[in-house]
């Protein structure tokens, strides 16, 4: 499936000859991939357990979904995503059975939720 995901991403969303010019960051977990493009858009595709793709569903997709704009950095856990936008806000979504979204509930989020106001990013680490 991952080969098909990347192939669709290239065909549908990026100019194949300028992939490295358009992608500033890429990461993945075992079944889900994410990239931040140079326009600071976060794209996700693959398995959608717990709403990991941020598209409002729990349906898997091999077509990348633009989940969030103005993204500076992203991390994918086993079933959740954390992203920091350029304004310093921390966003989280996906499974939350163990409180991994940090929102003091066990409610899952199928779309990005801003839950922490501006943080500073220093060396890849978000600081209060």
Short account of what is shown:
With 128 residues, this protein is mainly β. Helices cover 12% and strands 44% of the residues. The longest helix is centred in the N-terminal third of the chain and has 12 residues, at 2-13.
SSE diagram, text form:
Blueprint: H1 2-13, H2 19-22, E1 23-28, E2 32-37, E3 42-46, E4 61-68, E5 71-76, E6 80-85, E7 90-94, E8 109-116, E9 120-122, E10 125-127
Antiparallel strand pairs: 1-2, 2-3, 3-4, 5-6, 6-7, 7-8, 9-10
Can you describe what's shown?
The chain has 128 residues and is mainly beta. The protein has one domain. It contains two helices and ten strands. The strands form three sheets. It has a four-stranded antiparallel beta sheet with strand order 1-2-3-4. Strand 2 and strand 3 form a beta hairpin. It is globular and about 40 Å long. The relative contact order is 0.15. The mean pLDDT is 79.
